[in-house]
Amino acid sequence: MPVPFDPEIVLRRPLMAHLATQGADGPRTSPVWFLWEEGAVWMLGAEGSSSTERLMQHPACAVDIVDFDVDRGILLHLGLRGHADVLPKDPARFRRLLAKYLGPDEAQWNTWFVEQVADVENDENRFLRLVPESIFTNNVSYFRTGPDRIDP
Q1: Given CB 3.0 to 4.6 Å as the disulfide criterion, which of 32, 66, 125, 138 pairs with 2?
Q2: What's the CA gap between 17 and 111, in Å, rounded?
Q3: What is the Cα–Cα distance from 95 to 103, expressed in whole angstroms?
Q4: Cα–Cα distance between 21 and 58 in angstroms, integer?
Q5: Which residues neighbour 117 within 8 Å (Cβ) at sequence distance 6 or greater?
Q6: Nearest alpha carbon to residue 100 among 7, 15, 14
Q7: CATH number of the domain that 60 lies in?
């Protein structure tokens, strides 16, 4: 039986999400960093990238995020479903997303990574935005403790 939890517990953490899309060659998943703002999941994309192209053709998608800590016995699954938009990059939001994963001090960010992968100034960068039409949560944090659930 699903045990619900507050999705914000997972959405505020710097976890890896998986974006599931549909294309001409079938379903695909992509690991993505994300930012939760304004009731939407914002993910990095780029003009011409495979995920961006698939979403432009088939905007229906899903995002799954799992918070798994075997030592603490935490296992939280969050699923978001809906249709995504491909939007122009907003440099301020882009920086907030990067800060979630790289830290608040831009001077400490890995220069190579920013220049090659996550260049704030690159006009080809896009945002993939999913405003969820449905949200599913399941706290399975009893896998080690047996019927007693651990609260995250």
Answers
A1: 138
A2: 24
A3: 10
A4: 8
A5: none
A6: 14
A7: 2.30.110.10
pTM exceeds cut of 0.70: yes
Is residue 146 assigned to a domain? Answer: no
Per-residue pLDDT of the chain (152 residues; tens, 9 = 90+): 567 899 999 999 999 999 999 988 899 999 999 999 999 999 998 888 899 999 999 999 999 999 999 888 889 999 999 999 999 989 999 999 999 999 999 999 998 988 887 777 767 788 999 999 999 999 988 766 666 666 66
Which tokens sit at 122?
Answer: 């690159």
Q: Note every long-range contact of 26-35, with CB atoms under 8 Å and residues 24 or more positions apart, other chains counting.
A: 28/54, 32/63, 32/128, 33/97, 33/98, 33/100, 33/101, 34/63, 34/65, 34/97, 35/93, 35/96, 35/97, 35/100
Structure tokens at 102: 């790289």
